[in-house]
């Protein structure tokens, strides 16, 4: 993958006129000597639209304005026009204005056709938004039906994704999660597997409560690690409010079924208070063991879709940190 240059400047504000900006840069460069290094640096500048994916939301009013704007005379800031001065410049501007006026008059039929198409686009956009709302309602009902039909995960070996005798050292992404916790924090650890991460919380003297949905893991944690653990069903998913100010999960989210993740994040959105901080991690690849037999991954997570899903639920300050062990650590707030 090509390394991104630190000199690349992206302008994502749609109100900035890139053409005028480049003309201003060229005119200033013409008035002073420029070194070869500066020219190479300027040549790497890149201007991109407001969206990182290259998509700008449709604005009917702005589109109509741009269509009616037509041809406009140059501002003569470009060095190419520096010899056009005095009466010649005035005459040049008037000729362009006359041409723009005639072009507008001669293209009235084209204008009517454009507004007809624009009107249809607006109507179609309204219908599209209605269909989106209906689809989301249908999908929520479908997910709720999944909760009802799949209250348990079988067989249980699906949950055995970490050896009981695994060494106590943390992976890089787990260390990253731990570094964001302080002894004074109130923490809720969701699905801590067999409790390796809970041991690190105890060593760091961080007060926590743990929640698991697996009976075997609950019994093991309760007997060997801590009493601060609760066993819940998938109907509950989370304990009753109020919940701690920091909610974490060191488990790979991809090891959980998609319908569990759906209910988990929707429950977090409804049960937590404003300002609650969340830290989760996931990897779409089985990279935890040096073995040809890797744990099964029940879910694939799309980063962009996951971010959009969190935003729709009302979460903000979403930050994705890539760790060296192949995991993505997602942190966000309510």
TrEMBL record:
<dbReference type="InterPro" id="IPR029063">
    <property type="entry name" value="SAM-dependent_MTases_sf"/>
</dbReference>
<protein>
    <recommendedName>
        <fullName>SAM-dependent methyltransferase</fullName>
    </recommendedName>
</protein>
């Amino acid at each position: 993958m090509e390394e991104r240059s630190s000199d690349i400047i992206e302008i994502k504000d749609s109100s900035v006129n890139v053409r005028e900006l480049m003309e201003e840069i060229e005119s200033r460069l013409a008035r002073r000597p420029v070194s070869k290094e500066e020219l190479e640096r300027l040549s790497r500048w890149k201007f991109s639209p407001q969206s990182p994916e290259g998509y700008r939301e449709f604005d009917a009013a702005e589109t109509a304005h741009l269509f009616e704007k037509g041809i406009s005379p140059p501002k003569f800031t470009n060095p190419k026009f520096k010899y056009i001065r005095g009466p010649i410049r005035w005459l040049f501007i008037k000729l362009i204005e006359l041409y723009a006026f005639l072009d507008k008059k001669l293209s009235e039929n084209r204008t009517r056709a454009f507004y007809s198409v624009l009107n249809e686009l607006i109507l179609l956009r309204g219908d599209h938004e209605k269909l989106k709302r209906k689809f989301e309602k249908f999908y929520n009902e479908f997910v709720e039906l999944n909760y009802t039909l799949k209250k348990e995960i079988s067989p249980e070996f699906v949950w055995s994704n970490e050896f009981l005798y695994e060494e106590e050292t943390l992976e890089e992404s787990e260390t990253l999660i731990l570094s964001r916790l302080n002894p004074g924090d109130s923490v809720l650890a969701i699905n801590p597997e067999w409790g390796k991460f809970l041991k690190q919380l105890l060593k760091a003297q961080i007060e926590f409560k743990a929640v698991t949905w697996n009976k075997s893991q609950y019994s093991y944690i309760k007997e060997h690690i801590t009493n601060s653990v609760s066993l819940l069903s998938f109907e509950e998913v989370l304990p009753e409010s109020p919940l701690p100010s920091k909610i974490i999960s060191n488990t790979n989210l991809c090891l959980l079924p998609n319908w569990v993740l759906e209910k988990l994040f929707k429950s977090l959105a409804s049960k937590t208070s404003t300002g609650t901080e969340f830290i989760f991690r996931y990897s779409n690849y089985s990279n935890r063991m040096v073995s040809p037999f890797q744990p099964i991954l029940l879910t694939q997570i799309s980063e962009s879709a996951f971010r959009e899903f969190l935003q729709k639920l009302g979460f903000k300050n979403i930050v994705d940190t890539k760790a060296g062990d192949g995991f993505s650590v997602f942190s966000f707030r309510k």
